[in-house]
Amino acid sequence: MPATMPTTTTARPRRDALPDDAARLLARFSLSLDGLLTVGASNAKLAKGAADAWPVILHHLPARALAAAVAGPDDATTAPRSRLPGIAELARANGIESLALAHNGCPWASKGCQAGCLAWAGHGGLSTTVAAARARRTLAFVWNPKGYAVAVLVAIAKQWQRAQAKGLPLAVRLRGTDDLPWHDLRFNLNDNEAAAIARRYGLPVVPGIGTTIPEALSLAPAGSFRLYEYSKAPTDGPYGLNAQRAAGVDVTASLAADRPGGLAHALRAIAAGFRLAVPVALPKGAALPPVLLLRDGQAIARLLVVDGDTTDHRWADPAGPQPGGHDGVAVLLRTKRSRGAGPAAAAFSLAPTIGQWQPLAGGGHAALSTTTWEG
What we know:
Number of helices: 12
Oligomer: single chain
């Protein structure tokens, strides 16, 4: 647990429990506490599981999309992927234009993943208003990651109170449309700031110098939080899948089928006990096969299939080896339409062929199967 900071005095506590510097940060980028997180039924997939856990998700611009929003073409493949009104001016006014151009929200994304990203599906692919809101959040993160993390913590606390009133745990996913290492993002929270959050929202949080969101939430009543993510991070290292799991986050690895070595990485994640999310170009409502086979040279993994479209609550899915000779679990996700995707996106999803090995663009093979066949 991080060391606590010396107690400081606050002349006039805010009703929303936001520290003044975090409140100024949100105002600087035209953001509000209530607008930071996408909540409950406001997202179609999150709404499917809202009876089991109150869901919240944080949306930023993915990969290099912030650079496009600041200095990209005015007529990219779709308007939300183009230069966005006011974002360049906002970055310039806050002295972070160069940082915005260099920002990469998805450091492990493949070309196909970037082209077919879900950030451009649904409203995200239709509305420049949605994209601009995500851009402003991303700019706020770039300008002051630590202050932004405090604001996100307070937003989580507010939704936790709402979940408690519903008699539900709060499901929190911070890597909604990017892959930033939230489990390792450290910020300062003093005693008075922690006490203000507890008084306002009833949630005990741990103050400290260099704390993280999972650490700050570690005093919450058992079972009242579900911290979960999808991630293409490597298995090991400070930002890897194992580190995320050690921080208390339920992580589902993601297959980058078109990235060289992507399959080998996926097999390492499976061997370490992680589920594997796999997009498949099946139409909405189409039945999924019960088994996914992955082959890299002589190594074959037989995975029990879970339908990832029925709910986003991955922590409720099994993980690791399963009865019947399955080496792990594959969460199959039907490919969604990403507007302006381009041809590179096709290599990111498996073809809907049953009972045949199909080559992956990054190397190796996969097969959708009704049995553990491996012919």
